[in-house]
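Translate sequence into C-alpha cells.
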Amino acid sequence: MKRYGQIIGVKPQDLVRYKKYHAAVWPEVLDMIKKCNIRNYSIFQKDNLLFAYFEYTGNDFTADMAKMAADPKTLEWWSIMDPMQEPVSTRAEGEWWANMEEVFHTD
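Result follows.
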C-alpha cells in the first residue's frame, strides 16, 4: 500500500458548488475509484486549497489511473470538477492535482 497526498486550488466562486457535488458523489465514480485500487480517500479544504489523501493498494498505479481516465462516467464527473479547480503553479508536468512528498508518518 502506498499513501498519496495531493493539492489543487478551488476557485472561490465555485467552492459551495464543489462541496455540494462531493456531498453526493455519483455511485459510478465511487465504484471506479474502488476498481482502481484506491482506498481511504478524503479531500480536505482550507481557504482556496484542496488536499486529497488516499491509499493505493494495487500494483500498477499508472495502469489503474489510465483505466479511471478512460471511464465515461468519471470523464463526465471530471468535466464538471475541472473548471472549478485551479492547479498549483509548482505542479510537475502532466499533473492536474500536484503530488506531495510524504515527510512523516506514524500509525
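Note: Residues 2-99 form a domain with the Alpha-Beta Plaits fold (CATH 3.30.70.1090).
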